[in-house]
Amino acid sequence: MINISYYAKKRIKDYLIHFVMLVILVFTLFPICWMIYTSLKENTDILVGKIPLSHAHNNVVDIKVEGKTLWVLTSDGGINNLDRKTLNSKGHVSAQTMSTDFLVDKDYIWVSSANHGLLRYDKNNLKTKKEFDLRLPSFDKAKVGPTTLHSNGNNIYFTMKYKGYEQVVEFNKKTEKISKVYTVKNMFSPSQIQSVLAVGNSLFVGLDTGLIEVNRKSGQIVRSFSVIKHLPLGVERMAQFSRLGDEIIIAGNSGAFLFNIKKGEIVKNVYPNAVYGLNVIGESIYIGTNRGLVEYKAGVDFKKIFAKESLFRQIKQGGTVITDSSFTPSEVIVFDRSGDKLYLGSTYGRLSEYSYGAKKITATAAANPGHLVVSWVNYVDMWKNVDFGLYLRNSFIICGISMFFAMIFATMAAYALSRFDFPGARWISVAILATQMVPGIMFLIPIYSNFVKISDMTGIPIKGTFYGIIFMYSIFFIPFSVWILRGFFAAIPIELEEAARIDGCSPLQVFWHVVLPLAIPGIIATGIYIFLTAWDELIFAWVLTSADTMTIPVGIRNFVGNYQNRFDLIMAAATVATVPVMILFFLLQKHIVKGLTAGAVKG
Amino acid sequence: MIRNWLQKKWYKFKKYRFAYFFVLPTVIGMVALHLTPILQGIWMSFLKLNQFTLDQYVGAPFIGLKNYYDVLLNFKSPIRIGLFDAARNTFIYTLVVTFGTVFLGMLVALMVNREFRGKGMIRTLFLFPWVVPTYVTGLLWGFMWQRSVGIINIILVDILHLLPDKPFWLIGPNTIWAIIVPTIWRYWPFSMLLLLAGMQSIPEELYEAADIDGASGWRKFWMITFPLLRPVWSILILFGLIFNVYSFNIVIMMFGFGAGFPGEWGDLLMTNIFRNSFMQWNFGSGAATSVLLMITMILIVNVWFYFYRKIEEESR
To answer: Which residues 423-442 of chain A have a CB within 8 Å of chain B?
Structure first.
């Protein structure tokens, strides 16, 4: 047995303890750091689970083969011109926007985005860009939803997949103007438009609740079809199938179906699982899945000619790409075919070239990894849509005034209780302790109905105004403060007061001149504690404030509801809600710590 | 004789009129916003009060103990169904969180109590979670526990490969851990702070005497530190229990950002009552459930005090 000296043992113990402390420190600080870090990322990065701050490789959203070149279009509004032989990039430009969709025609590449409207790039000179305003309602600019483009002849149809934005904008390429705006409010409203398809005289609009047919001339809804049984999450993709225009394919999260327009119903289930990409080329239906690409050729009976499982060699079962530390499942979104070669674009910026003859993938390419991206803009965006400034101001007002009143009353009461043993003092002490043991909701229900009743009966606005909630907060924080302050007052030697009384001061003067100056540290500490607790208070504010007087906790709820899954903005709002409290805490931590510990030790 | 009694009362009042004056605002406030609502609440628990009858205020139809029956015994009532889960969850949650917080606080306080470089800064850093508002904690951890984009699953599965599959944290039995961990995370610094302050007031001579007698570290802790800290940790545990039974903010913001249902294993009593009262507008049964909760807590606290007094007297 090795004889370790006493001092060696002590040092080992020290290192061990320091190590454990470090681990706990990391556990303690990590979530806060993560919150700040996430608030600086872009939402698309967050949603694919990417950790580093650099841009995620963007999803390949569209591919077009033209002779020797390959246009690869990515979800950040990026346009890449690749050489087909080498798959090297010949030119690249990016609209640096979100939620894009593309159309490639003879001369131009059209890009749609939620915040820029419609952009047009010249194929020969990618630097030229023309922007067309699509008269998007201004409130929509901050609510970015994925956009969809569809072209039919000279017309481009633009829409946005946001619940409540029920419009399809028809834009004429030749005149470069909006020719028509279709409003598709229907019996399923508010609904979310997911796809658009123009066939013949009709415009088919796929919603999250069904499918409707709009007459292009009149702009009126002709028919509505409920396809919820087959596609409960909505009609995400549509493609024209038969050249006569009487059959279309509709597809979504639960499969692809053949829809007969004349009969107005689904006639066949083409593919039973989730569809991520849909294209009809020639007589084949190509369906992009999370296992690869599936091709169906039409015949009398639909027969699966070949199912391309595991097209991507690197994809293991379940579809996770296992290279270069990406953690995203890879789904085939888009593809184009030219002769023997089939080009597939998938999420996470992967492009694959598949050869029919060789029946395997002959080349792959990956979208350019991005530059470092720190999204300070999140902190600007979060103020725009939801009135966060209002909540901040309200919180300051309400917490500040409540703290002020609560401190005054609590100081008075604590002094009286600690110095004077008057009849009833014991009852009050017990009552103060008892209020801490009653659930908040026990008070909340009657107070809520009281406020409602007072507003009704007397017309004095109480519920939902500042007065109501400040009144409530002031009273509610008194018991705890009294409890803490009593400890402080007990620490002040009573001889000072007795001396002052002997000198002829009235009790009020004793309080004001002798006791109060000594108790200021404790009072400040208590006041800060009240402010912090009020800042944090949710359940009463939820019920007793209205839209004008909402505090931050309640406001953040609305905020989050509006920004469906915009985690970056949510984290930015969370950080902003934490910062004032953190600053306050830092400036005054000595007082707070001293205040609480003194009270605790005294019991 | 009555005049005598009145005169005595008046004299006492004059003697203490300063104190009464000082205490008056508080008393008025507490009567208005604490006492009256409790009485109203008890009365309301006997009424059929929902969004339709709210207008009638305290004159709403009197249905006696039906609310209580619905809550406790009526197995078909929708309120009862969720209540058992909520009660069970609250029970587990409270015990684990309270003892976890005190345990962790004690551990770290012991470690921080020694002299080393950067002690003040480390102590301040440890206090950070306390500053994060509770609803932000709920939001943040709700985001972190997400199954596919949450950082916790990413670390566990993709980086450290501790688990083969990404589990669901916000749905199913794992939810109880999903709500326990953030609460411990946020409240343990407070325990540490109080325990540390208590430890610093223990005189050094006790430890030196124990060292002379040859006591090991563990014995020193168990025989000196722990008993002398009893005032602190007993208060921490008592108020921790009460506070955690009434815990609301963190849990409500974790699921659907305040609008979602926490699930069978994530629901707590307070969120359950809140949902019944203000989202389904069943004020009467909400009041009944809170009355039951209040009575239970009062009983528990009384039992605690009884045992506490007994132990105190025995140790004298």
So the answer is: 423, 425, 428, 431-432, 435-442
Q: What is the CA radius of gyration of chain B?
A: 25
Give, in order, the Cα–Cα distances in Å from A521 to each of A67, A491, A596, B130. Answer: 80, 12, 11, 21
From A17-21, A295-299, A335-339, the region with the lowest mean pLDDT: A295-299
| pLDDT tens, residue by residue, B226-236 | 888 887 888 88
Separation CA B189–CA B113 (nearest Å): 14
Q: Which CATH class is domain A379-602?
A: mainly alpha
Q: Is A564 on the interface with B (CB under 8 A)?
A: no
A351-400 confidence digits (pLDDT tens):
777 776 766 666 666 655 555 567 777 787 777 766 778 888 888 899 99
pLDDT-derived band at A131 (thresholds 50, 70, 90) equals confident
Domain coordinates of chain A in residue numbers?
Answer: 6-39, 60-373, 379-602
Identify which of B98, B123, B137 has the alpha carbon closest to the alpha carbon of residue A593: B123
Residue bearing tokens 């974790």: B254
CB < 8 Å to A396, chain B: none
The predicted model scores a pTM of 0.67
Q: Does A372 touch chain B (CB under 8 A)?
A: no
A587: buried, middle or exposed (CB in 10 Å: 19+, 13-18, 0-12)?
exposed
Residue of chain B whose alpha carbon sits nearest to that of A447: B37
Which distant-in-sequence residues (6+ apart) come within 8 Å of A233 by Cβ?
A208, A252, A253, A254
Tell me the nearest-neighbour CA distance from B78 into chain A, angstroms: 20
Contact A505, A573 (CB under 8 A): no
Task: Say if residues A531 and A474 touch (Cβ distance below 8 Å).
Answer: no
Q: Most B CBs within 10 Å: which of A6, A11, A442, A590, as the mutation test of the B interface?
A: A442
Residues 34-53 of A with CB under 8 A from B: 34-35, 38, 46-49, 51
Q: Where are the alpha helices (DSSP H) in A420-515?
A: 425-435, 440-458, 466-476, 478-491, 494-502, 507-509
Q: Which tokens belong to A217?
A: 């001339």
- The least confident of A67-71, A85-89, A591-595 is A591-595
Residue A194 has pLDDT above 60, yes or no: yes
Task: Please check whether the domain covering A60-373 is classified as CATH 2.130.10.10.
Answer: yes
8 Å CB contact between A568 and A375 = yes
The string of pLDDT tens digits covering residues B100-129 is 999 999 888 888 887 777 777 888 888 888
| Pairing relationship of beta strands A101-104 and A89-94 according to DSSP bridges | unpaired
Residue A287 β-bridge partners: A278, A294
Interface with A, mutate which of B55, B102, B136 (most A CBs under 10 A) = B136
* Residue B173, preceding peptide bond in cis (omega within 30° of 0): no
Pick from A38, A567, A597: which is nearest to B193 by CB? A597
Question: Is the CB of A538 less than 8 angstroms away from the CB of B135?
Answer: yes
Q: Which residue has the tokens 């009790």?
A: A507
User: Tell me, which fold does domain B35-315 have in CATH?
Assistant: MetI-like fold (1.10.3720)
Residue A555 CB contacts under 8 Å (≥ 6 apart), including other chains: A386, A387, A388, A390, A391, A394
**Shortest Cα distance, chain A CAs vs residue B200, angstroms:** 10
A452 touches chain B (CB under 8 A): yes
Q: Work out the mean pLDDT of chain A and round it to a whole number.
A: 75
Q: How confident is the model at residue A96 (pLDDT cuts 50, 70, 90)?
A: low
Per-residue pLDDT tens digits for B67-85: 777 777 776 666 677 788 8
Q: Count how many pairs of residues, chain A against chain B, have C-beta atoms within 8 Å.
A: 261
Cβ burial of A7 (10 Å; 0-12, 13-18, 19+) is exposed
- Helix A466-476 and helix A478-491, axial crossing angle in degrees, nearest 10: 40
